[in-house]
Structures are given as structure tokens and as C-alpha cells.
Amino acid sequence: MYGFKLRYVKKSVLLLAALIALILAWSDLSHAFFTLITVFSGILVCGGWLARNALAQTRGDDSRSARVATRPRRERTSRPRRERTSKAQARARRAEELHPEETVTLSQEREAADIDHVFAALDNQLVGLVPVKSKVEEIASLLLVDRVRNRFGLQAPRPNLHMCFTGDPGTGKTTVALQMADLLSRLGYLEKGHLVHAMRDDLVGEFIGQTAPKTRRILERSMGGVLFIDEAYYLYRGDDSRDYGPECIDILLQVMENDRDKLGVILAGYKDRMDGFFESNPGMSSRIAHHLDFAPYKLDELVAIGRAMLDRSSYYLSAEAEVAFRDYLTLRMGQPRFANARSVRNELERSRLRHAHRLAAEPERSRTKDDLMRLEAVDILASPLFALAEEPVPAVGEAAPRR
Question: Which residue in 167, 285, 334, 368 could disulfide with 171, CB within 3.0 to 4.6 Å?
Fold first, then answer.
């Protein structure tokens, strides 16, 4: 308190001394000289006061900078986001791990992965194909058991997910590939579970330098899912020395080996041609773990497929129309380029077209809901295939009649 009062006493004495000096100077000096000295003294006093304040501010900034420098930086002590995320994922994985004395049922794991939906979709979308469905069930069982083993801390090499689908067109290869991608995603072996469909033109270029970018672009789109290469044997043309297919195959082999935990590759095509493709490319054959053969559909299975297709579109075959449809399939199965379920779908589309034209031919006639849903035998028998079958076969040496 006394120090506080003494400071103001000093200031008062200084002010009093300055006032006395001004009075004496005014009385002894000329007024012009007094004014000059007063202005000069004022400038000195103001300059000294500003310099003192600037020095004090500079010292304060230096002291604050020193305190900040000695304080630990936030970035140094904070952990990177990626590290924190990985630590959180590691903790989650440890939380999922089971104690060696615990027990678990595969039905619980199956329900947790929700893979029954995949098998229900296979049964609903595909008729027959019992061996294929059994093979898919085996693959799912292997992956499910491997998933449970990981929860107990049992380590094993990651199962190979690359496959080969062989069979005629229209036997359900693409449908099974879609469900397989969904299955692998639900079990945690693929990140996205999407399907990328590709053929030779999507992978192989026509000129030098085109093949590698095209192949890598398709592979980048497939990461996290399944790459489905239809008619894969066209990637290799042994009789053409200037073909760029081998470059594509080399890239595929490398990715299938190094990135097999990021995608699955399914090669599809006719069985005999795929066998020749694997003989010419043994490296590709060694990377395929599962071979699924899609047998051609039988007549009853094709009729059931057609019935299911019509049911999804709110159509149905009358009793006479189903007999006619069986006759059509019997003839069509013996024709070239028969494509199983695709041929069934194409003929039913044409039958719907004839059905609509038949109804529209009598616009004044009243129609019921059943009339709009029912396909009649005439809608099937109008196919040109029946007319071709009724043509007589010309004798040997006899020319066919001109049209």
C-alpha cells in the first residue's frame, strides 16, 4: 500500500518541479525561445513514453511466445485419425474374439451373417441345378467355419475365392455369380459384394498400349466384389501371334495372386473350350479353386422355368397352351443355338406379343382379368418353328422347293 502511495508522490513532485521550471523560464527567457524549448521538450517526452510502451509490449510478446514454445504441441500428442481408427477396429475385433472355453453354434453364425437369404434367392430364381447349389452350399460352409475359427483366434490361410463356371448359355451362370458375390460379402470376405461383367472386348485392346489400361480399369471397378469374365477362352488366341490377350492374362494372374483378398474372379464359358484354355494357360488353372459345371436343363425343368417367368409377370399358360409349349421346347432343343432359359424367355416374350395382338384384334369385345393373364395354345402354335417342322425333308438329289 505504501509503495502505491509513494509512486504517486514521486509523480506529483516531478509535475510540481516541471511547473516551477516553466514559470521561471517564462519570466527569464524570451517568449519565442521559451516556446521553442517547450515544444522540443514535449516531443522528447512523448517519444520517450512511446518507446517505453513499445519495449514493454515487445517483452510481453516474447514471454508469451516462450510460454507457448515450452507448452507441448497438440499435433505432437494427438494420434493420427487412421491410427485411432485402426486401434478401434482392433479393439472391436478383440471384443468379437471368443474365449477358448466358450461355445458357438453354426446356426447362430449363419443367422448373424444372413446368408439364408442367398440360398432362398437361388431356389426361387433357379430351377434344378442341384449339383451347383450343393457346391455353393459347400463353399458357404467352408467360409462360415473359417469365420468361426477366426473368432477363436485360430489362424489359417485365406480360402481361395476364384472360380470357374462351365456350361451352355442360359443355364444360370450369371445368376449364381450374382448370388455368390452377395454371399462372400455377407460372410465378410468381400467389402462390397458387387458383380462386374466383362468380356474380351472390355479387357483386350486392338493396338499396342491399350490392353493394360483397359484391364486395370476393369480390375479397379471389381475391387471389393467379383469380376465375372464370360467366354474367358477368347482372351487367348494361340493362332494369332499379334494378339494382345496374353498381356491381359498376365495382369489377371498377378492380381488374382496378389490381391486375392480384395476380389474374386469367375471365369465362365463352354466346358470343352475352358478346358483348352486352361491347358494353354496352366498358371490360370492353378489359381482356380472351385469348378462348377452347369448341366443343360431337361424338358420338365424348362417348362417349370417358363411357368415361373410367367408367374412373376402375372401370366399363366392354359392346359392346352402348356402342351403346346412342351411341343415347342421339344423341337427347339434340337435346333442350333438353343440357349436353355434364355430361349424359354424369348419364346414367352413372343407369345405375350401374339396374345396382345389377338386381344387387340377384337377391340369391342369385353375382357376379364383372366383374359389378360391367360396365354392360349394359339399363342404358342403361331411360332414359325412348328411350320418349319412340318416341311417335308427333300430326298437325296432333289432340290428344296423355292419360296
Answer: 167
Output the CA angle 148-181-265, nearest 5 degrees.
Answer: 105
* Three-class secondary structure of residue 123 per DSSP: helix
C-alpha span between 211 and 244 (Å, rounded): 7
Widest CA span in the chain: 155
Strands 316-317 and 195-198: unpaired
pTM above 0.90, yes or no: no
> Is the separation of the CB atoms in 332 and 343 below 8 Å?
yes
Q: What is the DSSP letter of 191?
A: S
- What are 137-193's pLDDT values in tens digits? 999 998 989 888 888 888 878 888 899 999 999 999 999 999 999 999 998 889 898
Q: Which residues contact 76 (CB under 8 A, 6 or more apart)?
A: none
How crowded is residue 205: how many other Cβ atoms within 10 Å of its Cβ? 17
What distance lies between CA 186 and its chain's CA centroid? Answer: 13
Lowest mean pLDDT among 48-52, 182-186, 200-204, 391-395: 391-395
DSSP one-letter code for 188: T
d(CA 375, CA 354): 9
